[in-house]
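Check the record.
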Amino acid sequence: MKRILHTSRSLALMAGLVVLGGVAVAPAMAATVTYNFTGTVNFVGNNLKPNVFFHAAPPSDPGSTMTGTMIVDMADGTPGGLLGTYTILNINNLQIGSYNATFNSADGQTVTIRNGTGNGAGADRFRVSAGVDGTTVRNGSGTPREFTIDLRGPNNIFSSDALPDPAPSVGSFITRNIFRLQFGNGNGDGRAVIGQLTSLTAVPLPAGIVLFGVGLVALIGLGAGGLRNLRSSQV
């Protein structure tokens, strides 16, 4: 009877640990980085103005700012050390002026990190390419098709092709700093809103989640010790 009781307690403890581990560990398996970014518009294509969203480039357009949030999977799709590609899971609250665009993963969803070895095209690079949807701005201009961010070099910003967390300062990219919302077919400037990124920050995990993870590890450790004690008492 005593042996059965010990066995029951052991099984119950193991089941509890599996449930707790599954609840906390499963989301962590898909590790992500969340980036907030802002920018300033400095060009509006002629096919897009004037309208209720994009009137002109600053300073005549007081609403010439861009904001957004991007969630990226940390798994590298092209491991190797020079070029890393990462899947964008979502882009939230992408707003340029008073225009809102929504994420469309079917039309592109990658962040590319290049750990460069030279200058120009060979410099370090942080590039975002994401499909987006939204309302038509002007007859003949079409709907938004792609949102991109292109930050380049020099070649001493990244030490690997890993997704950066924390994000490097936008000011460290001196070769190129451009964001672009492209409308319609092709990549013509006449159907694009273009600007400069002013900030890129990685959002840290909430302290509560970190503490919960630490507590779970401790609980599992205690549980393992309890199981050893139960087994020892049965010998």
Summary: DSSP finds two helices and nine strands in the chain. The chain has a mean pLDDT of 79. The chain has two domains: 29-204, 205-235.
